[in-house]
Amino acid sequence: MRNIRIALISFGIAGLAMSAQARELMPNDRYMCSWGAGTAARAQELKLAGVSLYAARQKIHSYKFSKSWMRMMAMGITEQTYDSPTRFKPEAVRQSFYNDCVKYKLARK
Question: Where is the signal peptide (predicted)?
Answer without folding.
Answer: 1-22
